């Protein structure tokens, strides 16, 4: 984690063939066995994890 002089929210959106937080039986896209999004939240960051279809277009991701 890089420390910055701001408090901007962090938005994590998966890439091609990725999955969201509530999918894949508890295996985290962001960290595998670890949950990086929760680790960042525990450090006081505002984190959003976005779920889109695994083959969605960039238009849908925006």
From TrEMBL:
Location(s), subcellular: Secreted
Residues covered by the Lipase-like C-terminal domain: 6-62
One term under GO cellular component: extracellular region
Transmembrane segments: none
Keyword match Signal: yes
Pfam assignment, any one: Lip_C
Identification of the protein by name: Lipase-like C-terminal domain-containing protein
Lineage: unclassified sequences, metagenomes, ecological metagenomes
